[in-house]
Amino acid sequence: MVWIPGGEFIMGTDEVNAYAAERPAVNLSVDGFWMDIHEVTNREFAEFVEATGYVTVAERKPDWEELKKQLPPGTPKPDDSILVPGSMVFSPPPYAVPLQDISLWWKWVDGASWKHPEGPNSDLKGRENHPVVHIAYEDAEAYAKWAGKRLPTEIEWEFAARGGMNGKRFAWGDELTPNGQFLANTFQGTFPNENTGKDGFIGTSPVKTFAPNSFGLYDMIGNVWELTSDWYDALKFARIAGQAPKLDAGMNPCYNPDNPYAMERVIKGGSFLCAENYCVNYRPSARQGHAYDSGTSNVGFRLVKDSKEQNLSMK
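Now predict its structure.
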């Protein structure tokens, strides 16, 4: 872990080409904290599972009583043969497709989990140092409790990702690939069917592959989205700026106009699937909602720890 000193910064953006949920920019402050220098890896998560016997959400049979809470009233219960352990896996189509229908590249795969990222016939051989994926929010919280840490808030995460560089489009400046250099694992080519892999990777990459930011943090942009502890509110910054009414968290701690029944946590940083023609989320201000009770093949996490002792020795 490294010490993140805290301070004042500009969160969000006024950039015209950013997504609405990132606007407007607001002035905020954050206290100092410790942060993992990289995303939790498959090897680290395996150590946790071996020590505790923990079974992730993706490895359990889906609970219909929980699932229906995020669906319109009256949604019929699917057949039990469909309610089997699994997770969502990116499955690129062989040709160009309309970008309005995510079901054309996201597929539910029975048996997909952190141990089997693409399904039962896949494993982690050679990916021990890649970020763990197919992690639901409660899985990340369980790991955090075991490790004596916690998930970062959205404010902490964005402050750390910016590395002291206020007002820049990317975590390293205003150019995506300065001098032709790739500084994050993203999608090159035409999403979702043509990834040229010019950055060296088609899927996830080992942590610490790309240069760290000025705080010494790796992969704050790209590789995998990272979970935070905040519920997702699409109007969060507008509410902070006094441009929208306060959210009635007693009714629902989330607000997603595209999914009124959503129960989502904020994810940050973008992933290896973010491309110039789709999902331009390889920026510190980028944010999305992610279902709290499931994982995907492009979402992971890292942890933080509170400390008043800045020179505390951390492994």
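Residues 42-52 form the longest helix (11 residues).
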